[in-house]
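Our platform keeps sequence and structure together, in a single record for each protein. Nothing more is needed to write down the fold, since each code stands for a local backbone conformation. An entry from our holdings is shown next, in its original layout:
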Amino acid sequence: MLVKICGIQSEGEARRALAAGANAIGLVAEMPTATGVVADSRIREIVATLAPEVRSFLLTSRTDPEAIVEHQRATGASTLQLVDRVSAQSRAAVRRDLPQVLLVQVVHVVDRNSVEEARRAEAGADALLLDSGAPDAPQRTLGGTGSTHDWSLSREIVRGAACPVWLAGGLRPDNVAEAIRQVRPSGVDVCSGLRPRGELDEGLLASFVAAVAAEGP
């Protein structure tokens, strides 16, 4: 089971996350109502310290393919986490320009319509990530809410998906095992659940990774 620690703020946080057993880190660029935003220049500095095998996810809210490509090139991240809706045509255009970069399309699980949205979102994506934002609300949120969603819908998406699926949204050390048992994702993604005071809590980090490991590969 892959573990991604999101909202990384510094080289030190990245080192602690990876030392604890994380496989990937997430770096939040500027976006609507986001917390833990890091400037693109700092993202590039953090990415430059990572070993080649570490997955670095750039959370970008850009939807225009040229803007997405520009964002990746400014930061050097190995994976693009597209937190807003991006069309299959736009993902294809990004892939043509960035063939070595993985594309992870976020689907915010709101209701049963999200199951069909996930099916469409697979086109041109290397993986999906299921989160708990509200992209259609008057006050749009595109992740980092600290709230869970209906895991039965996530499980249905995972069962029907032809690509790997990450699970995010309100995960914590005390609920991640149950989330894994219900959803059976390829990986789990956590941010606010390990940051009760804003900074990455090493005790919660260790507990989270241990809880995931206890559920097996």
The chain has eight helices and eight strands. The first helix runs from residue 11 to 19. The chain has one domain: 2-213.
